[in-house]
Amino acid sequence: MLKDLQERFRGYVAGISELAPYGFFLLMLGFLNLMPYRLRVQLGSWVFARIVAPSAGYSARVQNNLHLIYPDISVDKRQVIGSKTLRNIGRMVIELLSPKGLKLQALAAPVSGPGWDAMLEARKVNRPVILVSGHFGNYDVIRAGTIARGFRVGGIYRALNNPWFNRYYLRNISTIGEPLFERGRRGLGQMVRFLREGGTVAMLIDQHIHKGEPLAFMGQTALTALSAADMALKYNALLVPCYGIRRADGLTFDAVFEEPIPHTTAIEMTQALNNSLQSRVEENIDQWFWIHRRWKGGQ
After folding, report:
1. CA dihedral 12, 14, 17, 19 (to 10 degrees)
2. Is residue 191 helix, strand or coil?
3. How far is CA 158 from CA 135, 203, 207, 298, in A?
4. Which helix (H) or strand (E) holds 58?
5. pLDDT of residue 267
6. pTM for the complete prediction?
7. Local structure of residue 287 (DSSP, 8 states)
8. 116-126 pLDDT per residue, tens
9. What residues are paired with 181 via a beta bridge?
């Protein structure tokens, strides 16, 4: 009986420890939600860059990654790039938690690139489409805008460790559009069925995958998942690199759909996706999420 009481007590303590930061988060978000969308995004970016990122160790990680990839850039220039990067991430966080405002921005974003025309042709014959992007600009601009233009788009998400945060996060990204597939065996099965029915799936390719293929990215070796290319080959899906690129005003976007990746081998196709993202990062260096441990072992 004593052991049972001890286990229950530990459970209560764990629950409180997870709930406490969630309560603070809701309080802060409630304050931000009182503001107009534009001001909310701007203030949220400042809070993330000046308060959240330094305390969480993100600022140091950004600098480490920048030094790894651009060792010849001066410290002062890396600091400037890092500050802009963190501001962009802060904007993205607030935008994802403000789905109604983000949907309006996504619908207003001009659509361009040969990939869009190819997608329209694929839709006519119910051919599956796999949209591949990275943590760049705001990737959900692509999902929201594509849904608004009549495509059935499913997204993959990774559940957050804190269950309270996860429920809130899932509720917000679901407002952008459904279905959503949780990363894992069950979610993969649901996604495959959706794809085989002619659906469109949105995926991100730029995080370290322990069992991924060692491919080149930004001049370094990065373990990269082949899953997007594998599925494109298996289900004859169109594989389209795409990006929600943030404009200079910090609030509006361009939705760019590049030429679909030709079907060759999974490794060649995935390397082409890495090359595509690298080109976008080199054009807008502060729009990529340099907080990721993309090159583990190199930092």
Report:
1. -70
2. helix
3. 14, 11, 12, 25
4. helix 58-69
5. 98
6. 0.87
7. G
8. 999 999 999 99
9. 156
